[in-house]
Amino acid sequence: MTDLPADIDRFSIPERCRVLVFTSPNAGSGKGRDQIPRFVELLQQSGVDARVTHQVNELQELSAVPPDSQVIIVPAGGDGTLSLASAAVSKSIDSDGNLPLIAPLPLGTENLLARHFGHTSRAEELIQTIRFGSCYRLDAGTANESPFLIMASCGFDAEVVRGMHLTRSGHIQRLSYFGPIMRAMRHYPFPELEVRIDNGDTLECRWAMVFNLPCYGGGLKIEPNAIGNDGLFDVILFRKGSIPSGIGYVTSIWTGTHLKRQDVVRLRGRRVEIRSSGRVPYQLDGDYAGKIPLRIEMHPGFVQLLVPSKQAAVA
Question: How far is 9 from 23, CA to CA, in rounded Å?
C-alpha cells in the first residue's frame, strides 16, 4: 500500500447509503468474482441498499445522489472498469458539486490503481474501507474525451496492447503479453511523434507516455514521481526510433535505468497534444483505445476515491 498524503479526509458512512456494484456481464468467472455476491449479501444483512448493475445507463441513473444520503460505486473488475464507472458517475454531480464515492473491488489482471492504494478483492476488507476508510480526491485525464485514471501512452507499448486486443480470447494473464511483445519488437517501425505540452514548443519523439499515477503493468516504475492529486501529468518521451533503440528502451525500463538516459525527456503539464503522420496506436489504463492524433486534458479532483485507512485496523 502506498503512503497516502496527509491531506486526505477521513470518511464515515452516513446512515442513509446506497451501494452500487458495477461489473461487466462479459467478464466471465475469473478469480475472485465470488466476492461480488458475498459483498452484496453482507451489506444487505446490515440494512444497506446494495445493488448490482451491468449497464452504464443504469449506473448513471441509480448513482444520482439523493438528498441527505450517500452513493458509493463499487467497480468490480480491472482498471478499465474503474475508469468507465468513474466517467459514468461524473454525470451525477448534485447541486453542491458532490460526486458519488468510488470504492474498487479489484478483479482484473493488473488492478494497478487498486494495488497502489491498498485495496484487495476480499468483500470483508472492502466493507471495512467503506466503514472506516479515507476519501482521496483523485485527478483524472481524458484522451480524446475518453477517461483514464492511471496513464496514457502511444508508441511501442500501445502497439503491444493493440496486438493483445486483436488476438485475445478469454481472461488475460501476464504471460498472454509475451507474443504481442515479441511481434512488436520485430515489426514496430517507431514512427515519429510530435508532442506539445501546455501550448509550448513542439517536441519530437518516437514513444510518449503520460502518467497520472506512478503505476504500470508488471510492477514497472516508469515514472515514480507521478502524484494523483497534484493537477499535473508527468510526461516521458523516448526520442530515438529504431528496433535496436526500442529494445534498448525496453531493457532499460526493465532494469530501472531509463531515466538516466540522455535520450529520455521528462516534462509536466495539464494538456498534451500528440500527432503523427503515421498510424500510431494509443492505450488508456492498459486498454487499446485507437489511433492518434490525441488530445489529453487534466481534470483535477475528478474522482472521490475511498481508500483503506491506516487507522481502520484500530477504529
Answer: 27
Each residue's pLDDT expressed in tens, for the chain with a length of 315 residues = 444 444 444 455 556 788 999 997 555 445 678 899 999 999 988 888 899 999 988 898 888 766 677 889 999 998 888 988 888 877 655 444 557 899 999 987 789 999 999 999 999 999 999 988 899 999 999 999 988 999 999 988 898 888 876 665 555 555 555 566 667 667 788 899 999 999 899 999 999 999 999 999 888 899 999 999 999 999 999 999 888 888 888 899 989 999 999 999 999 999 999 999 988 999 999 889 999 999 999 999 989 999 998 633 322
DSSP 228: T
Helices (H) and strands (E) in the chain, counts: 8, 18
Q: What is the pTM of this model?
A: 0.85
* Cα–Cα dist 260/160, whole Å: 24
In whole angstroms, give the CA distance from residue 209 to residue 95: 36
Residues with Cβ within 8 Å of 218's Cβ and at least 6 positions away in sequence, in order, are 174
CA distance 235 to 151: 10
Q: DSSP characters for 229-292?
A: TSS-EEEEEE---SHHHHHHHHHHHHHT-GGG-TTEEEEEESEEEEE-SS--EEEETTEEEEES
Cell, residue 295: 488530445
